[in-house]
Design a protein that fits this description.
The protein is α+β, with helices and mostly antiparallel strands and 750 residues long. It contains 28 helices and 26 strands. 51% of the residues lie in helices and 17% in strands. β25, α25 and β26 form a beta-alpha-beta unit.
């Protein structure tokens, strides 16, 4: 089977390491279950999840107890292989091996079909030809022993390790049919002496192998399409770049040779190779890969540029800041890979079924043969043998095994193309149940770039020194509103020493300057110190809040000195996103630490009816918990450090992509471009994906539940119908292909 190549990815928590490795040799869900159980038995393995569709195993293990090479030995002993090297050479060798395997599968399938067509015609149309049985034997032999050799080799490997897979079913069914036919050609008198005709079933063995190989070839091609999003993302990064050397010489280097601090030249039409900051020149860059916005963005000295984005007409130079796996593009690829390799909760049930599926099918096949023999005696041998072969052929654990992961892979890949990074399959599956969403204001509904509109001083004489004190105090705060104040004052203010500076979460900052205590923050911070603003300042503040501005109060230990109005404009798509969420039946809540009047103004402009203001970070989490206790499945969208607690509490957590790393780490889903209107798209994607998974599982289960009894001959006493093994083989191949094809429909859904 062809598998998508994944880089090994580390994410260490304590001594635990998470990595992904490609697996080779898998052919069905039972293979995945066997590898998973083998790895889980190894000491030091915390968890293991094998994804059949992506051919990837995701591992959590303790490196002091087990190494990747130890795990590879265990997997090899089970009859498969684990690719543990992540070097460029190893990746190229793996890609080459996968291509060779695909070509070999194609060659074997074409050969089998070319021989199976005349084999079928001789058996069904020209059965009276002289030596027809020998002709069929000659045609079937290369199909069984060359085209179908992998079935027998893999089945033998698995039986040695007390495992059974799809290969076991195919090998047993076609092997029995072939050997029984050879016996009948060589010793026909054994049956003639008993008054029976010596039937041969070469066509059953040959045509079944041909159809199964054709199904695997189609499935292989279809599965390759499920990972097209990863291929597109990988294709965005060039393999070479032009480096500007210290002497000014420009030379071409492999991208692996660039290090932070290097100066890179980008010419018109080229992809940006790594993350960095423009040092000279200017150009417009297509950043739709990151932001989803089709309009090119102007870049000039000091502007950030990101790997994978496309330069338009101008040339410029930039200094590399993040290279290799540290670039934004690499982190996106890594997140998509890990998510595509993860398992949805519904997959646990499927894995349990797959682990007992093949032994159960073998038992049913033997039982059906026994029933035929008991019911008809010697006359039941031939139909009983055909029923047993047909049961083995028609059973398909592949359809079950592919039902969930193919849909997840396509869904997560589709999300990545739309600027939605989904951390794992569980987040994607749970999103469809979301019926309430909590939105933060700053950076989520608004642009997150507040600016000071004006400052109203109590007395003009207080402005000169007060400006320096306020500037020095706010410089020590990490809040975005404080940055806005610093940016507003920095040209006309001097830095003063501040003692005992202390940030008060959700309220502001306090510190001592020149022996006097000063406060900058919310009204509750000021009034909590027993201070009351005069009537003029209070009237001004109320007017600004009604206009959706946030008010910052500045005071010393005796009186309020000034009030600042800070505005943060709404995103153009915020109101549209709120309307879209409402139309999907989702209740929208605005929960913010800002004052009520400002929050009410924003809620009014966006059409949000449910509002909670002046909320501390812990209050946000408690509010979500309250909604959950009433039976709601709650989503939370935010971008700041202060949102991380609420994001962790929410059932579905959504980080706005330009927000803090802590918020992104806490979230199950990240909107790369900060466009809130993408959230309804993410919910639609989840609903479509879950619907596709349910369709796949329904048809996979129904196919086996109906097909196996019919193959065993349950209709024969009523209608005289006995299913032909060739038809069973075609149906089995079709079931896997139909499941993968149904998943691929997700790529074209809006």
């Amino acid at each position: 089977m062809k598998s998508e190549i994944h880089n090994t990815n580390d994410s260490t928590a304590g001594n635990r390491v998470r990595k992904q490795f490609p697996v080779t040799g898998m052919s069905c869900a039972s293979c995945a279950a066997n590898i998973e159980s083998t790895i889980k038995k190894q000491p030091g393995v915390v968890s293991a999840s094998v994804n059949l569709a992506s051919q990837i195993v995701t591992l959590d293990y303790l490196p002091e107890k087990v190494t990747p090479d130890d795990l590879r030995e265990a997997v090899v002993s089970a009859g498969y292989d684990l690719i543990t090297s992540d070097s460029e050479v190893a990746r190229e060798e793996l890609a080459s091996l996968q291509m060779l395997n695909h070509r070999l599968l194609k060659r074997k399938a074409v050969t089998a079909i070319a021989l199976a067509i005349p084999l079928f015609l001789v058996s069904m149309v020209f059965m009276d030809l002289p030596l027809s049985e020998y002709i069929m034997w000659a045609l079937a032999t290369p199909i069984v022993f060359w085209s179908g050799s992998s079935f027998f080799i893999n089945a033998w490997k698995q039986i040695r390790h007390r495992h059974t897979t799809m290969d076991t079913l195919v090998a047993l069914s076609t092997g029995i049919a072939y050997l029984f036919s050879v016996f009948n050609v060589l010793f026909p008198e054994f049956w003639h002496s008993r008054g029976l005709h010596a039937h041969v079933y070469f066509e059953a063995a040959g045509v079944v192998i041909a159809l199964v190989l054709l199904g695997r070839l189609l499935e292989d091609n279809a599965k390759a399409n499920t990972s097209s999003a990863i291929k597109k993302l990988m294709g965005l990064q060039p393999k070479t770049l032009f480096k500007v050397l210290p002497g000014g010489e420009i030379r071409e280097f492999l991208i692996s040779k660039v290090v932070p601090g290097d100066t890179i030249l980008v010419r018109p039409g080229e992809n940006i190779p790594v993350d960095g900051r423009v040092s000279s020149g200017r150009s417009y860059i297509d950043e739709s890969m990151i932001s989803g916005e089709p309009v090119a963005v102007l870049k000039e000295p000091g502007s950030e540029v990101f790997a994978g984005t496309i330069n338009q007409k101008g040339s410029f130079q930039f200094v590399a800041e993040k290279v290799g796996s540290d670039t934004l593009l690499s982190s996106i690829i890594r997140l998509v890979q890990e998510a595509q390799g993860s398992k949805a909760p519904v997959q646990k049930l499927v894995d349990k079924v797959a682990s007992i599926f093949v032994p159960a099918v073998v038992a049913i096949a033997v039982l059906s043969f026994a029933v035929w023999m008991i019911a008809l005696g010697e006359d039941g041998f031939a139909p009983g043998l055909m029923a047993m072969i047909t049961v083995l052929v028609i059973a398909c654990p592949c359809a079950l095994g592919l039902a969930t992961p193919t849909a997840i892979m396509v869904g997560i890949g589709k999300g990545a193309e739309k600027g939605i990074l989904i951390k794992d399959a569980a987040a994607l599956e749970l999103t469809h149940r979301m019926n309430a969403i909590v939105l933060d204001k700053t950076g989520t509904l608004t642009r997150g770039k507040p600016s000071v509109d004006k400052i109203r001083w109590r007395q003009e004489t207080e402005e000169l020194r007060g400006r320096d004190i306020l500037y020095s105090l706010e410089k020590l705060s990490e809040h975005p509103l404080a940055w806005a104040v610093v940016g507003f004052l920095e040209k006309n203010a001097s830095d003063l020493p501040v003692e005992k500076a202390e940030s008060i979460t959700g309220k502001g900052i306090t510190g001592i300057v020149g022996g006097e205590v000063y406060y900058a923050g919310s009204l509750s911070l000021i009034t909590g110190k027993g201070l009351l603003p005069d009537e003029a300042l209070m009237k001004y503040a109320e007017e600004e809040e009604r206009n959706a501005s946030t008010v910052i109060w500045f005071a010393d230990s005796k009186r309020v000195i000034a009030v600042l109005s800070v505005s943060d404009t709404l995103r153009a798509t915020s109101a549209e996103a709120v309307i879209g969420l409402g139309e999907m039946g989702i209740d929208v809540y605005l929960v913010t630490g800002d004052n009520r009047k400002t929050a009410e103004a924003v809620a009014r402009q966006t059409g949000i009816k449910n509002l909670e203001a002046e909320m501390m970070p812990s209050d946000k989490a408690e509010f979500i918990k309250t909604l959950q206790s009433s039976g709601r499945v709650v989503g939370m969208a935010g971008d700041g450090i202060n949102d991380s607690q609420a994001l962790a509490q929410a059932d579905v957590s959504i980080a706005m992509g330009r927000g803090s790393d802590i918020a992104i780490d806490a979230a199950g889903m990240t909107i790369i471009g900060n466009d809130l209107s993408v959230i309804p798209s993410a919910i639609r994607l989840s609903r479509n994906t879950v619907r596709t998974i349910r369709q796949n599982l329904f048809w996979a289960f129904i196919y086996n539940v109906i097909g196996i009894p019919i193959a065993a001959g349950i209709l024969y006493p009523l209608t005289g119908f006995l299913l032909n093994p060739m038809i069973a083989g075609a149906a089995m191949a079709l079931s896997s292909v139909s499941v993968v094809s149904n998943s691929l429909r997700l790529k074209y859904m809006k």
